[in-house]
Amino acid sequence: EAQVTQNPRYLITVTGKKLTVTCSQNMNHEYMSWYRQDPGLGLRQIYYSMNVEVTDKGDVPEGYKVSRKEKRNFPLILESPSPNQTSLYFCASSLVSYNEQFFGPGTRLTVL
Amino acid sequence: AQSVTQPDIHITVSEGASLELRCNYSYGATPYLFWYVQSPGQGLQLLLKYFSGDTLVQGIKGFEAEFKRSQSSFNLRKPSVHWSDAAEYFCAVGALYNFNKFYFGSGTKLNV
Questions:
Q1: Using CB atoms, which residue from B1, B9, B90 is nearest to A43?
Q2: What does the pLDDT look like over B57-80, one tens digit per residue?
Q3: pLDDT at A2 over 90
C-alpha cells in the first residue's frame, strides 16, 4: 500500500531533550516536506527536500533540522525542543513538488 | 510573502444543501492552487488542484472549484453536501517563484 508513515504518532517530552520524528514514504517520491499545524494558523511549512541531499527552509524553520540521506526517509530533528514547538506535525511527499502531496497521519508533540 | 485567506472558520450546512468555501490569495500572477480535506484525526487528502487552463476544476467526492483571477479567489463548491463531508478544508497555494514552497490557509471547519 502506498503510504507515508511517521513515528512516533504521539510524543511527550521535556524542554531541551533532543528528539527525532521519522518520516518514510514507499512511493519513490522525489519531494518531501514537513509541516506543523496549529489551531487558527493552518499548516506552515518547516523544511522541504527536492531530492536526496537537497533540502531547503520553509516558512518556519527555526529550531528544526532535517536530513535526506535516502530517497524514502526525511527525519525531522528537534535538537533542543521548547514549549512553543508543541504542535501537530505532518510529513508529506509527492512525485514532484507541484504535484499532489500525500500526507502522513501526523505526530502530536508536546514539549513540557 | 504570499498569503492565503480562508475567511470562514466554521460553516454549518444541512445535509443535501449546497456548499461554498471561500479562499483568497495574495498574488499578482496565477499561482498553483489546491484544496485539501482533513477528516478528524487524519492527514490531508487532495480534493483538486488548478495549474492553468479551464478555470472550473473538478475534483474528487463531487467537489469543484472555480479560479477567478480578478478576485484572486479559488472557492470550493459542492451542490449537495453529505454527512460524510464533515471535515476541515484547507486551501493552499504554491509559491510563485519557488515550486517547492507552499502556503496554506487557516482552514474552514465544516459541520453537516
A1: B90
A2: 999 999 999 999 889 999 999 999
A3: no
State the DSSP H helix or E strand holding residue A89, giving kind and residue range, or none if neither: strand A87-94
Which residues of chain A does B103 touch, with a Cβ-Cβ cutoff of 8 Å?
45, 59
Size of interface A-B (CB pairs under 8 A): 55
CA distance A98 to A31: 9
Query: Are the Cβ atoms of A59 and B101 closer than 8 angstroms?
Result: yes
Average pLDDT over residues A20-49: 96
Q: Show the cell assigned to B20.
A: 461554498
Alpha helices in A33-111 (DSSP H): none
Q: What's residue B48's pLDDT?
A: 95
| pLDDT tier, B98 (very low <50, low <70, confident <90, very high otherwise) | confident
Q: Which three cell numbers stand for residue A13?
A: 517530552
Contacts of residue A48 in chain B, CB cutoff 8 Å? 100-101
Chain B interface includes A10 (CB < 8 A): no
- Amino acid identity of B20? E
For B68, other C-beta atoms within 10 Å of its C-beta total: 11
Query: Has residue B29 got a pLDDT over 70?
Result: no
Cβ atoms of A31 and A50 closer than 8 Å = yes
